[in-house]
Amino acid sequence: MEERTLKVATSSYACLILAILYVFDPDMATSTSDDGNESVATVKKPLYESSTQFRNWRCSPEKLAHIRHSLNEAAVSAIRNTFEAAEPGSSANVSFLDADEELLLVKLYVSKIPQLCALFRFPEEVEATAITYLKRFYLRNTVMDWHPKSVMLTALFLATKTTNNPISIEAYASHIPKTAPSDVLDLEFLVAQSLGFEFAVWHAHRALWGIWLDLQNFPGDPIRLPMSAYDAALGHIRTSRLTDTEFIYAPSQIALAALSLVAPDAATKWADTKVSADTDTSAVSLSSMVESIKSLILSSGKIPDVESVREVDRRLRICKNPEKVPGTKAYLAKRAEEERLAEEKRAKKVEEVQKAMGADPFGEEIKNDAPRPGLVDYDDDDD
Question: Phi, psi (5° rounding) for residue 342?
């Protein structure tokens, strides 16, 4: 009896797993054996490849450049038209930012996030997540619409919540000079919307810790490295956050490259255990990939020169979208237009509600006042 109960429970559990797999990916739910029978399949692809980060935030360097240049061109065109609509010919002498200058400004504010995290004593997870949010935001928006300083503060505050390290908005704003709670909260929905409400981030520093534990439990001959080697590799991962590596490579690949910069022999030995005949990645291609990541970290992982960024920021004050600057004619006109459209929408909704209420909700038959025969005639005097 107990054996039969166990079989039924096991069968039910298998059906539950099958149903869950089918919801996420029907192709993963079943597999066909050699005899033609279908059975519950094991998940073949890595868990990371099922994430929104892999699906929506991975692209080639060429695509990244195309996205940024397209956003920049669209913003320049829109802002130029706004200037011309307010005063014809006013945009002729405006020096708009190009995509590389926008990226330079964003990069500077990326480097400010670790300083703020040190001030609040936020953990590594918050710092890495906030940086990713800021960088992702500017794959959907431009600095000529939204200044990185404001977006940075909102991205960091949002990261404290999504990583389960919350802080009150009053305490947060009080530690940042010239910042009111509204300065942070006003952009929160915009930032979340720009992220596609995809808040989960896979980080390279967590992958590095996994590799580090693997090395200490290496089969046959554990690799013992000093803790200073781990700290140095973690430093390279922090440097990589100033680059585009997280948009191009997987977290584990970035972690392996960071370790290779510190302990190349240990990194190679660990990588050799992960490459087999069953994988699509060969030892040669993995080595080439690691070298590309290392080169990108060493060449692009530098904080921008403050003077060059100051010049970009000075020009930004002139070419910023006037529709986003409170007090300008374009801003007031934009707000008036938004309020007009909102009022029209409200009026239309009220009209629809009133129209619906005008009709009798009980129908014509019940509205009729004519007496209806009951089941019992109380006027009948018969005994």
Answer: -65, -40
Q: What is the pLDDT of residues 309-326, one digit of tens each?
A: 999 999 998 888 877 765
The vertex-352 CA angle with 347 and 357, nearest 5°, equals 125
Q: Are the C-beta atoms of residues 47 and 251 closer than 8 Å to each other?
A: no
40 phi and psi angles, rounded to 5 deg: -65, 130
CA 64, distance to chain mean position in Å, is 16
User: What is the spatial distance between Cα 234 and Cα 208, in angstroms, rounded to a whole number?
Assistant: 8
Q: Other CB atoms closer than 10 Å to residue 85's CB: what's the count?
A: 14
Give the whole-angstrom CA distance, residue 136 versus residue 114.
17
Last residue of a domain, one of 150, 168, 201: 201
pLDDT in tens, 42-59: 546 778 888 888 899 999
Look-up of token digits 């990588």:
271
In the beta sheet, which residues pair with residue 30? Answer: 40
Q: In the structure encoding, which two tokens stand for residue 46, read together?
A: 């890595």
Which of the 8 DSSP states describes residue 50?
A: G
Place 354 in a pLDDT band, splitting at 50, 70 and 90. Answer: confident
SS3 39: strand
Within 10 angstroms of residue 91's Cβ, the number of other Cβ atoms is 18
- Token pair for 92: 């002729």
Residue 366 identity: I
In the chain, the number of structural domains is 2
- The pTM of this model reads 0.76
Q: Tokens for 109, please give them.
A: 């504010």
What's the token pair of residue 7? 């079989």
Give the tens place of pLDDT for each residue, 120-169. Answer: 999 999 999 999 999 999 999 999 999 999 999 999 999 999 999 999 99
CA 230 to chain centre: 27
Q: Has residue 257 been placed in a domain? A: yes
Burial class (CB in 10 A: 0-12, 13-18, 19+), 241: buried
**Are the CB atoms for 48 and 54 separated by under 8 Å?**
yes
Q: Collapsing DSSP states into helix, strand and coil, what is residue 179?
A: coil
User: Which two structure tokens, joined as six digits, stand for 278?
Assistant: 């069953």
The residue segments making up the domain with residue 243 are: 204-301
Q: Please compute the mean of the pLDDT values over residues 352-371 and round it to a whole number.
A: 61
Q: Which of 269, 301, 333 is the last residue of a domain?
A: 301
